Amino acid sequence: MNFDEVLSKIGGFGKFQKLLYVWICVPQIFLAFHMLVSVFTGAVPPHLCRSTLPSAGTPSTLNFSLLSSSDGLPELSCTMALNHSDAAAPGDGHLTMSCQEGWEYSTETFQSTIVTEWNLVCSNASLNNLGSSIYMSGLLVGALLFGYLADKYGRRIIILISLGIQATFGVAAAFAPNFYVYTALRFMVGTSISGVIMNAFVLGQ
């Protein structure tokens, strides 16, 4: 007697199995949000050195088309031009320095992202990519850790624990005081996602 015959003898794919399958699939919807959220939270809006802007300028009224360098001046998103009275530039070039007073960001598309919150632009731009890499490392660690724990303690309890970790650290990430705490929280969210995906897949078979 094969598995299909046993299944038909006990009632087949009945109401309980259908309900269980739905409850297993529901958490996967929330996982998609965690996987895609970095596309929006890590978006880099147009930005300009605050030192290059008129004193009356605000992010809503600024012309971020200044980012183009059609006039031969360096781009103003990461550098600002110094006056010749401050220092002499060799030849006809323009002496520049990094932004000293921070940046102003366009709010046309995004009101706030981790980039605007912690100035992850220019010399700090690599930190934005690092945050995504740490999140993916969490997926790897979670696959190894929760796969072993599920074999030892059962998949149901591990799924519930993973969902609890995901909810707790996912909400906490929204209130992170700095980038390093944010990435640590996202790492924990990544581990929990692996705990849900793997074990829910096995239970759904």
Automatic annotation (TrEMBL):
InterPro entries: MFS, MFS_dom, MFS_trans_sf. It is found in: Membrane. It is a multi-pass membrane protein. Residues 35-205 form the Major facilitator superfamily (MFS) profile domain. Gene3D superfamilies: MFS general substrate transporter like domains. Keywords: Membrane, Transmembrane, Transmembrane helix. The keyword Repeat does not apply. PROSITE patterns: MFS. The chain crosses the membrane at residues 20-44, 133-150, 157-176, 182-203. Its main location: membrane. PANTHER family: SOLUTE CARRIER FAMILY 22 MEMBER (PTHR24064). This is Major facilitator superfamily (MFS) profile domain-containing protein. It comes from Goodea atripinnis.
